[in-house]
Amino acid sequence: MIIVKTIKEVREKVKEWRDAGLSVGLVPTMGYLHEGHASLIKTSSSANDRTVVSVFVNPIQFGPGEDLESYPRDIEHDSEIAQTAGADLIFNPEPEEMYLDNFSTFVDMTGLTEELCGLSRPGHFRGVCTVVTKLFNIVKPDRAYFGKKDAQQLAVIRHMVQDLNVDIEVVGCPIVREEDGLAKSSRNTYLSHEERKAAVVLSKSINAGKELVKSGEKDAGIILAKMQEIIEAEPLAKIDYIKMVDADTIKQTKTIEAPAICAMAVYIGKTRLIDNFFTEDA
Ligand code: AMP
After folding, report:
1. Residues 204, 140: one domain?
2. What average pLDDT score do residues 207-214 get?
3. CA distance 23 to 130
4. What distance, in Å, lies between the first and last C-alpha atoms of the chain?
5. Average pLDDT rounded to a whole number, residues 184-211
6. Averaged over 192-216, what is the pLDDT?
7. Is the CB of 127 under 6 A from ligand 1?
8. Taking the model in full, what pTM does it have?
9. CATH of the domain at 263
10. What is the pLDDT of residues 218-262, one digit of tens each?
């Protein structure tokens, strides 16, 4: 596995692979890799001849006062995880490599991006769509892998690929969790010992919601009320949002008729964590 920092080097390597008739998978990440990322890399390397992992803390998807500076970084550890999971190349550019001084073109989606995390983090998905488009153009993969952990992001990327006729297959991968159920996240490192224990309320609430869906409950209000009650019983937790939305449009739904996503963002202390389940996976 090699680590490169320039767009030119990625293009040269990918061209070499293409000339040899090899298929290419891309796993975009912000680094500080864990088993969630590793599962995406493994899925890619089992379906493609070569896998590129991008490790880039994308400044334009962070809002003012968010954790851009403090976001954890450890490229050495990342390279061990990526290599073990089957990556062939890590693309780890500096922000200046991705955004020239005169950078002024953005990919901006309406609709889907104005719900859930888009409401609490204005501009976030504009940054995500822009960087993912750039990564797609740099790597030109056959397939790209995204976690269901970021369910809205997955829906947004699928929609962008459809809207802009991008010839790349988008593959959604299951959420990988800690033993107690907490969804793995680079941001879990922000939690104190006490907060880490409290953070289990997210997955407890998710499991309760899943059980209701499994038992045939279709009323989103009933499901959400039960889930909310579980989170509110934890003094360190503060709900940002908890909603049932249509899986394609991300618009709120009162009853589950089409595939839906039950999604939440919850502050544990100062750390904002997200979790969700797809009703079809319940
Ligand atoms: P991030 O580095 O947090 O931007 O995540 C990069 C990719 O890994 C995204 O597609 C995430 O959805 C995915 N991912 C992050 N955590 C998990 C997890 N616990 N399980 C599955 N995928 C994940």
Report:
1. no
2. 98
3. 24
4. 37
5. 98
6. 98
7. no
8. 0.98
9. 3.30.1300.10
10. 999 999 999 999 999 999 999 999 999 999 999 999 999 999 999
- Which of 173, 204, 226 terminates a domain? The answer is 173
Atom of ligand 1 nearest to the CA of 184: 19
Taking the centre of ligand 1 as the mean of its atom positions, its distance from the CA of residue 221, in whole angstroms, is 28
State which of 113, 140, 173 marks the end of a domain: 173
| 145 Cα to the center of ligand 1, angstroms | 9
Residue 37 annotated to the active site: yes
**134 in a domain, yes or no?**
yes
**Which of 70, 69, 71, 88 minimizes the C-alpha distance to 79?**
88
Choosing from 40, 61, 145, 189 the residue with most ligand 1 atoms within 8 A of its CB, the one to mutate for a pocket test is 40
244 — phi, psi (to 5°)? -105, 125
The ligand 1 atom at the shortest distance from the C-alpha of residue 146 is: 10
Distance 184 CA to ligand 1 centre (A): 8
Which atom of ligand 1 lies at the shortest distance from residue 33's CA?
2
Contact 125, 153 (CB under 8 A): yes
- Domain-embedded: residue 180: no
Which ligand 1 atom lies nearest to the CA of residue 27? 7
Structural domain count of the chain: 2
Whole-number Å distance, alpha carbon 102 to ligand 1 midpoint, is 30
Beta pairing class for 271-278 and 237-246 = unpaired
222 CB burial (10 A radius; 0-12, 13-18, 19+): exposed
Report residue 282 as tokens: 């319940």
Query: Hey, whose CA ends up nearest to atom 11 of ligand 1?
Result: 147
User: Does the beta carbon of 36 lie inside 6 Å of ligand 1?
Assistant: yes
247 secondary structure, DSSP code: T
Quick: pLDDT tens for 159-192.
Answer: 999 999 999 999 999 999 999 999 999 999 999 9
Helix, strand, or coil (residue 21) = coil
> In sequence order, which residues have a C-beta less than 8 Å from that of residue 13 and are 6 or more positions away?
2, 4, 89
